[in-house]
Amino acid sequence: MQAEITSPSPLLDSSGRLTQVGWSRQPLLDCNLENVSFYRCRALQPLRVKRWDYYGLTTPELFFSVTLSHVGYLGLPFIYAVDLATGEMCEETLLIPFGKGVELARNSTEGACSFDNGRVKIAFTVQGQARTVRVDWPAFNRGEGISCDLTMSCPPEHESMVIVTPIASKRFYYNRKTNCLRTTGWIQRGGRRSEISPDRALATLDWGRGVWEYKGFWVWASSSGFLPDGRTLGLNMGYGFGDTSAATENAFILDGRVHKLEQVDFEYNSRSFMSPWKMHSPDGRLDLVFEPFKERVAKSELLVLSSEVHQMFGRYSGTLKTDEGETLHVEDQVGWAEEHHAKW
Fold it and tell me: Which helix (H) or strand (E) holds 141?
């Protein structure tokens, strides 16, 4: 059973417990992280709270991603770009002790996020239906430099896959994933400028807030693309953390409307990530094969913090069945799938 949240409320009550658990089509809960309560010493709790805003943009030629994250004792602004034709990739991450200068908004529906240390400037803003992403990083990729000015359209009726997942000992994950945001603007990498138009470019937002256990693991699969008839199709599947008995994060998003799925089973080889992945729902509503063409590996080891991500870029093919019973045929839609192990 998938428990749908339909009424607004605070995320946490006065004792730090979740007020509602399940999934929703819009972010209805106020992310009142000031009520987090799981240590006797409240002064230590902010060091365990994780927050991030991740944007990934897919065009026929390029995947571009920029993130602002704050994991309590460390800030992690990072950017990467993948040439989808050649597989060429560039990536850089900043490690900011205690996240100094990393500002993240309280909720995903309004406000500003930013980082500016005089050498790197990253800014996200939400104003009405528009989400803007601006970057200026002259020293990126050994001085090649990268900058962008992107505007993503998110009308009020555009639905997201929002989930509130309990984790043991008053820990939790509050997450909003929004696929298929039509995007306009530009990206400049060295002497190469990419003009971005909404008929060819779709963005994905991954907005996360929560408190995890020290050791974490998850799998996430996602895509934002166009069907042959011009409709947009977003994919979002995953598993690996917390109690998902009330709801999973599995869904597909057709022309801005969420079609909720229950269980999705993954078959992949963690010793050969570039082999095909299979994703299937026991009720027969999702049957996909993901064929990778590029592996991105990101590893870090910093005393108490470690992270290892294997993110595959590839193409999805298969079938989906809508809530109304329509069968959708997916052919070679570009997206990604990843496995992530963390100690944080």
Answer: helix 140-143
User: Residue 169's pLDDT is what?
Assistant: 85
Q: Average pLDDT, stretch 249-258?
A: 98
pLDDT score recorded for residue 304: 73
- Note the pLDDT of residue 334: 98
What secondary structure does DSSP assign to 83-124, as a single string? ETTT--EEEEE--EETTTT-B--SSSSSEEEEEE-SS-EEEE
Give domain status of residue 29, yes or no.
Answer: no
Q: Establish if 36 belongs to a structural domain.
A: no
Please determine, for residue 302, whether its predicted confidence score (pLDDT) is greater than 80: no
Q: Ramachandran region of residue 255, left (φ > 0), alpha (ψ -120 to 50) or beta?
A: left
Is 16 part of any domain?
no
Range of the domain at 300: 50-343
φ and ψ at residue 201, rounded to 5 degrees: -125, 130
Domain count, the chain: 1
Residue 192 lies inside a defined structural domain of this protein: yes
| Residue type at position 259 | H
CA atoms of 189 and 180, how far apart (whole Å):
23
**Mean predicted confidence (pLDDT) in 307-313:** 95
**What is the CA angle 153-159-161, rounded to 5?**
115
